[in-house]
Amino acid sequence: MAQPVILVENLTKQYDRVVALKGVSFQVEEGEIFGILGPDGAGKSTLLRLLAGLDRPTSGRIQILGSPPRDPRLRGRVAYMPQVFNLYADLTVWENLQFFGHVFGRTDAREWERLLEIARLGQVRDRLAGRLSGGMKKKLVLITVLVSQPQVLILDEPNTGVDPVSRREIWDLLFEFHQQGMTILIATSYTEEAERCDRLLLLYQGRAAEVQSPQALKKPLYEKVWRVPTEVSRRHPDLSTLFVIQQRGGWSRLILRPGIPLSQALSFLQQLPTLATPEEPTLEDVLVHFQEAMHQ
Ligand code: ADP
Fold first, then answer.
1. Probe ligand 1: pick from 18, 84, 189, max atoms within 8 Å of CB?
2. N or C: fewer beta carbons within 10 Å in the chain?
3. If you average pLDDT over residues 179-198, what whole number do you get?
4. 37 lines ligand 1 (CB under 6 A)
5. Helices 109-118 and 93-103: crossing angle, nearest 10°?
């Protein structure tokens, strides 16, 4: 079997009092778009910083393309885009690209042109980076990272605070490079974004679930999610012993709690004055279910 592009074994990271990662293990295969999905504080940035070699784990092992993260052989082959990234605000879009191109020894201007075109930044090439909109800035950051033509791209929540149109354009950019064989690892707290990944690692309070595709993660929740009118859930507070209740507009979403037998839930629902309607499970339900399981 081909060696995984990223191998993480039993990774633990402890800051003074906080254990940010607790025995996390997974593998990323060549050409995958691999997502790390978890709420704020789950440990995503910590994990990515360790992968990028910016910090050392307390224990455990990481291999990227067969080498440890700080190995000089990985230079130019692995790129990392942190959440906060400083562009040169006083340089134009084109000058930023030129600058990072030279840093990485990629000096072919045709390649820079191509990146501008894919990112749809051609029209603002002479604008100062400091004057770009939030979404444009993110796209520029991404292409200054991509200018090194890495085999492996590690992205820390690239779409946080980005408007939906720019978000879609960033994904178009990622898919374009993915099609050329790039392996992409992306951390996100957006479930809608996680849907685009081939496989996902769910992370919560430093602990990880087994890696699976979004479809496979949702499968066990089929027939375990319902909706009822909000007034019904208000009149039956004991519903919350069997279900996690998520309030929506005029209705509530009920997600079966881990460890509760389905038969018990069904007989409870049958006693309600209004029929509970089955709902398609979503990745958000999966995340809620996982968090509940971690609390037990
Ligand atoms: P996420 O990226 O999923 O939001 P983080 O990796 O940033 O999560 O944080 C995970 C946990 O580790 C949090 O409780 C956070 O407060 C803690 N943490 C992160 N960095 C440090 C640090 N340098 N020192 C102390 N605690 C930290």
1. 18
2. N
3. 95
4. no
5. 130
Query: Over the range 98-129, which residues count as b (16 or more CB within 10 Å of their CB) and which as e?
Result: bebbeebebeeeeebeebbebbebeebeeebb
> Taking 90 as the threshold, does the pLDDT of residue 249 lie above it?
no
pLDDT digits 0-9 by tens, 63-122: 999 999 999 999 889 999 998 877 899 999 999 999 999 998 999 999 999 999 999 999
Q: Which residues pair with 202 in a beta bridge?
A: 37
Rounded distance between C-alpha atoms, residue 68 and residue 133, angstroms: 37
Distance of alpha carbon 75 from its chain centroid, rounded?
24
pLDDT at res. 1:
60
Choose which residue among 13, 14, 15 to substitute to test ligand 1 binding: the one with the highest number of ligand atoms within 8 A of its C-beta: 15
Tokens of 229: 């009118």
Q: Which two tokens stand for residue 91?
A: 């340089």
Buried b / exposed e across 142-178, counting CB within 10 Å, b at 16+? bbbbbbbebbbbbbbbbbeebeeebbebbbebbeebb
Q: What residues does 11 pair with on adjacent strands?
A: 24
Question: Which helix (H) or strand (E) is 155 found in, with range?
Answer: strand 152-156
Please determine, for residue 10, whether its predicted confidence score (pLDDT) is greater than 90.
yes
